[in-house]
Amino acid sequence: MSTINHQWERFTFQKKLARFAVYLVTVAAFLASIRTVDVIPEFFYDAPNQISDMFSRMWPLDTAFYPITVHAALMETLHIATLGTLVTLIFAVPLALLNARNVVANPVVNWISRFFLVSSRSVNSLVWALLFVAVFGPGVIAGVLAIAFRSVGFIGKLLAEAIEEINMGTIEALRATGASWASVLIKGYWPQVKPAFFSIVLFRWDINVRESAVLGLVGAGGIGVVLNDAMNLFEWQKVSMVLFSIFAVVILAEILVVQIRKRMI
Amino acid sequence: MAVVKDYPNPFERSPANTIGVIVIAAYLIYAAIDMDLSLARFLEGLGHGSALLDRMFPPNFTRWELLLDGLIESMQIAIISSVVGIFMSLFIGLFAARNMMPAWVSSPTRVIIALCRSFHPVIIAILFVKAVGFGALAGLLTLIVASIGFIAKLFAEAIEEISFKQVEAIRATGASFTSIVLFAVLPQVFSRFIGFSMYQLDSNLRNSTMVGIVGAGGLGGTLFSAFQRFDYDFVTAILLTIIAIILLGEFLSGKVREIFQ
Amino acid sequence: MAESQQNYLQIRNLNHEYEAGKPILRGIDLNFDQPGIIAIIGPSGTGKSTLLRCINRLINPTSGEVLFDNVDLTSVEGKELRRHRRHIGMVFQEYNLVERLTVIENLLTGRLGYMSAWNAWRRNYTQDDINNAFELLEMVGLKDFAKQRADSLSGGQRQRVGIARAVMQDPYVLLADEPTSSLDPKTAVEIMELMDTLARRKNIPALVNIHDVSLAQRFAVRMVGMSGGHVVYDGPPEGITEDHLKQIYGGESWLS
Description:
The structure holds 3 protein chains of 3 kinds. Chain A is mainly α.
């Protein structure tokens, strides 16, 4: 009589147990980490002083520094972000097509392209930059390629998801007209994913502006190089000038993207 | 009688498309020249690239102890910063929610969150490295700041979307503010909080393997020094470890999300 | 006569199963040689849609032959298949237009089988195609909507565009899969009228899957009743009796 009841109870009990296990593991991992992490307590207590000291040295901004060095480096950063985003499309679009199950109905192909997309996303853009600096030497090329290779996974994944959401009835109708595969792609898939495509690319460009600002720290060009130099020389007022310009560019890029999106919809 | 009249082409070629293509092409050329990119340099690099790949494979795990040290530090950084960051975000998110707090509390809190968000974690990391020195502490502080910037905002938004009826019902019983939060607000947003938190744990794990590049502890530091010493086969070993740990993290956070669904 | 002979559509012993051991079409034999609407009736899930899709190979039948234009469509692939497909117009229940393109361009997508992908991309439709598209649009009563996007139209208007697209293909046969099921009764009649007119004018058969038996009888020159993957009635619309309907749909409570 009580079989159903009993099973139901057991299920919630399991669930409770699972939740409890998660809490327990979280607390245990946290405590273990706190006890073993290599942090000198004195440094920790001193941190607020050090940080406020650093900020006091940063004021006022060295505005004279902007036209001399910062502006050109900032432009270079924007170029890296934009070129990187354009270059990434060469790889991301085919991979997205191969990854979308409603374009290529072959699990092996889907899986292979997914492998590339996941690898691209798992490696941070700074690490990609290190690799490309090793290949091409310090400079802009490494930056552009780092941005491009990191973005492939992002754009490819989101684009593949957008493609998988389209209305397949339309595709069926176009195939029924005798249209070739390429024509179906152009007249069936493309009009349907077009808004998502531009939205995804803009979104990634916005992220890339932020990311390209730090690539210079490993020598891959842009404003990061200037920031790194100023830091190594302890020129705090220049550092704050650079930080402020990065902040301004990031905000401007975000406003720009929001405006373009509004107009597109 | 049948006058064959031609209908005008309904697709007047709009200049916008052509202009768009020209602008992009012109930009590519300009940017390439401006930044001294050339095919020759690119091809030369490809040569280096194959040499590099040669040296990267097979991966070299002989110094696994070093690898393990870095990995453990990365995980410590990720775990502590996630727990502390999420815990702090609970309060900061609550303070930033405009339906729970008066404007003089929520507005400044929002500014703080926005500041935490605007800078890339690596930039925050170098500032902390300068302030508190090399090591895990700088990494911890960085990722706490990054977590607050990301997750406090999501928490605030989730709280702002709750149904206020339940809050009023509990308030009508004369409950204190704390009880209202615990019994009317938290149950409504709990599962979403778990989702955000898991996402943040993922993201902190990724970032904890990166902040080391600028000296903030963890596997990134190991990676960076391997690069500087041209130990490319060790680099591959580290990269594979990072990818494996990130995939494992994604798998585990997916499981936890299932449990709390 | 000679031409319509050549464009016979013959289905011979057609079988299809989505899952092994669960056949949905069992040995269908049908000839389509006269122009006008041929209504295919039958309960949901009896394989009407599958039958139509096996004809133009949107679904590959498990076995059997589809003879069209003197070729067995089940034996051709790729370019050859597409060359035949362009003479088989298809109309869908959910219209299946490219929502974000204009009405006139939706009509012109019916010509995609005749043009290269490059020309499709550049929108290099021939002047003849453009003229035909506008004339057809006028005929289906949507002249003023040519440059509107398809997603701004009502259901009935969309179905007119869908039919016009199929006719743009210059088809030897029309397939229509539940073309009226998503429409209100009045619009449904209009759509059937339009299909009837076009099929007669083009002198081609139009195979129409349809649920509404009386609507089918009103326009069809011939009716095919299907049940359980078999053809159980094939003849003039007047010849359908209540017994036939009972056999097709099972039970009788729905009749009264």
